[in-house]
Design goal:
elongated; alpha/beta; about 10% strand; four-stranded antiparallel beta sheet
């Protein structure tokens, strides 16, 4: 089994394409089921955020797996695979491990070091686990990725400023308008991004704070946690006239804020000469693109934010990359050991079969042997075989841990004509044979 990651992000694709491919929570079960039903895909986890859609998979062959996964993404985008291919990134085996660890650490994020990706990756993994599409290989990969992400944040100051997509968008918007301190602000959406937006606005001094959501009960719970006021979604038009800052972060498939609605909100409204600052942090977009051309409104969305953020590495990023590099090598060592474990187990099973066959043959040819004698012969033969297998099996595991070590397991399979079961065997099950 091989690891493969195929996806699109703000680094490779524009927001219009990402919008077409992005998956909401309701889409996940069907897409996960579709993926693992494909010929070359055995396991799958789908990560879909405001700036990336990527599929982690355990595949039986690289080209077949790439064609299967690419076909799913192309179908969602409404494009031929040849049209989508230039926008995709593909990571295989060691590169797939490295990518997963960098994503979890926030090193591949639009805002480097942001911690929200950890929760998003955890949710994606949890959904796949619930649906039974994450098997042994992806379980191990995602569990280790989450651990590595936590380690990078704990051992470096990569997130020292509490930087997030929300804070970056807010900082960009304030540069174009005015500080939000003391200004009324509204958050549309009561999910994780909505909660983060309220917390960020409160730290920035925005007041009073409002939150609205189609499900009012969720808005009320979020408002209570953050000292905000929950407003029914039906009152959105009038509420827009009373605030200076709007952050929209819903999972709506259609825009929540269109040009006529926002034009009405700014018409005849006195905001002391400042624009209405609108931050669109959703994918698909919550704010219709035509809003950008309206007077009296400053719109900051994912597309604008991705163009403006610097990707210059600093010391903390370099420290994070060093941690990731070490963890990748440790994971690959485990993976190579896991790959050789079924071969070692099969070799031991073959030896046991040969011994048992010879003992049965001995019992038939020498019926005069008593129970004690047969037991002693059996013990001696098993001990001889264990001694003979001990050094080769220890050595092949050592060799398998090095780059290119899979060739040694392959050599054992060829020499002894071993049939390896398709289900994986834990390395612990192929522990040392002690003499």
């Amino acid at each position: 089994m091989n690891l493969l990651v195929v996806g699109l992000s703000h680094r490779t694709a524009g927001v219009p394409l990402l919008e077409r491919v992005t998956l909401g929570p309701g889409d996940m079960p069907a897409v996960l089921a579709e993926l693992v039903a494909l010929p070359y895909v055995d396991e799958a986890v789908v990560l879909s955020t405001c700036n990336r859609v990527e599929i982690y998979a355990a595949v039986t062959a690289f080209h077949g797996g790439l064609a299967d996964i690419g076909g799913v993404l192309a179908a969602r985008a409404g494009l031929a695979m040849s049209e989508l291919a230039p926008q995709l990134y593909v990571h295989y085996e060691a590169d797939a491990v490295r990518h997963a660890f960098r994503v979890a650490a926030g090193l591949d994020s639009m805002v480097v070091g942001e911690a929200q990706i950890l929760g998003q990756l955890r949710d994606a993994y949890g959904t796949a686990a619930e649906r039974g599409t994450a098997g042994r290989l992806l379980h191990e990969l995602l569990q280790q990725a989450l651990r590595v992400g936590k380690r990078v944040h704990a051992e470096t100051e990569i997130d020292r400023a509490g930087q997030s997509v929300v804070s970056a968008a807010l900082a960009y918007g304030q540069g174009a308008t005015a500080p939000v301190e003391g200004r009324p602000a509204l958050v549309i959406g009561a999910g994780a991004m909505g909660a983060l937006s309220l917390a960020t606005l409160r730290r920035a001094g925005a007041a009073p704070l409002y939150v609205t959501n189609r499900g009012h009960a969720r808005a009320e719970r979020l408002a209570e946690l953050h000292g905000a006021e929950a407003v029914p979604f039906a009152e959105l038009p009038s509420l827009l006239e009373r605030v200076d800052v709007v952050v929209s972060a819903t999972a709506s498939p259609e825009p929540v804020l269109d040009a006529p609605l926002l034009a009405g909100a700014v018409a005849g409204t006195d905001r002391s000469g400042h624009d209405l600052l609108v931050l669109d942090l959703a994918l698909p977009r919550d704010v219709a693109p035509a809003v950008r051309d309206l007077p009296g409104i400053t719109l900051v969305d994912i597309e604008l934010l991705s163009e403006s953020l610097s990707t210059t590495a600093d010391a903390e990023e370099r420290a994070g990359e060093e941690i990731v590099a070490a963890e990748v090598e440790a994971f690959l060592t485990w993976l190579r050991g896991a790959d050789v474990a079924p071969t070692v187990a099969a070799l031991r099973a073959r030896a046991d079969e040969v011994v048992e066959a010879e003992l049965r043959r001995l019992a038939q040819r020498c019926p005069e042997l008593g129970d004690d004698a047969r037991a002693e012969v059996s013990h001696s033969i098993h001990r001889i075989v264990q001694r003979l297998l001990h050094q080769p099996t220890v050595r092949v595991r050592q060799l398998a841990a090095a780059p290119g070590g899979e060739a040694y397991a392959q050599a054992l399979r060829e020499l002894f004509d071993l049939q390896i079961p398709t289900a994986g065997i834990d390395p612990a099950e192929a522990s040392e044979v002690h003499p």
